[in-house]
Amino acid sequence: MSKDILHANSVKLFHPQQLIKTSILLPSSKSESNRALIIKALCKQTCHLTNISEARDTQTMLKLLASDSLTLDVIDAGTTMRFLTAYCAVTNRESILTGSQRMCERPIQVLVEALRELGADIEYLTNEGYPPIHVKGFRPKKDALFVRGDVSSQYISALLMIAPILPNGLTINLVGKVASLPYIQMTLQLMQNFGVQHEWKTNAIHIPPQDYHASSYSVESDWSASSYWYSIVSLANEAEIKLLGLKRDSLQGDAEIVKIMEKLGVNTVFEHDGILLKKTTTEKSFEWDFTHCPDLAQTVAVVGAAKGVNMKMTGLESLKIKETDRLVAVRDELAKFGIIAQDVNDETLLIPPQAIKAPMTYIKTYKDHRMAMAFAPLALLFNIEIEQPEVVEKSYPRFWEDLGKAGFGVKI
Prior knowledge:
By secondary structure, this protein is an alpha/beta fold. The chain is 30% helix and 25% strand.
């Protein structure tokens, strides 16, 4: 890689052989970890959690739950912001919840309005509908809510986890299309692990008043993190990768990557301690609805584009309010490789079959961990440089180290 394109804060990647055979211990699921930590905090008995995620989001959650400070800074952790807002409200913990500039641009109005209906006293400190917010207290008023189903599932999960400790429990009526359904199911199944029962009929979820009970729980490895290794297998000339700690009966919606990558050239073999990935045939055309697994979209878009697959990806509405506008970010970075993608109505991405080129190999991350990791596998095709390598600390702190174990040249 020529010196004139090097940047001060970046990681340079290349792979000399395109032959990969390795075993990777994936990070623990931050989705499971963050839910388990809130449940533990709400439980009156002692709960034992193991294999808690090392991701910055989860470590931030741990730190803030233990803090006695009035101001709780979630940095850029959306899940932590949403879950702590509900937790602080229902436990009458006066708090000012704030975060990074981007975090304060991500909406929270749906959750705040729902909590206000239940009896929370919450004030916006800067812009209506956005953090920072001041949670002042809680006096129970209602035991039923109507909540849009097409908003972030984190709002719904936040409400579900506080439901059992409300005086009369809570019924949540989901209105319209329900997005990210597996994350809601994950929340309910984790609550059930700690003794909380629920009833779900049609679009109404009812949770009676009850106590969480002491339990032990070991967090599974992260299926979202596995997606980057699926991408590597798909793009490599020859590959066999073992991913440790994943289960066939996972609670995580991103286990959908197994079915998705069958179409993009990767076969999954479940073994007792994880999964084994092997190369197979890639289909020429690909269409998938990512409504329930939006965090996989960037990775799938990049690998499909790199292989010249005719792609139609739908259900991407929630990508607009993530760490960055992920639809725009993916489209703009793919354009650097000669791939012209089109986003339609902010929910569909169309990528026609095109030859990938490397006229410019510097990838912007937009401070988004998934942008960095989604584009990293392209180092199998040509040398690339990715800005802000530290962004992976949000979900997969050992990512660059693990790439090195797989034979990638990694220079930070």
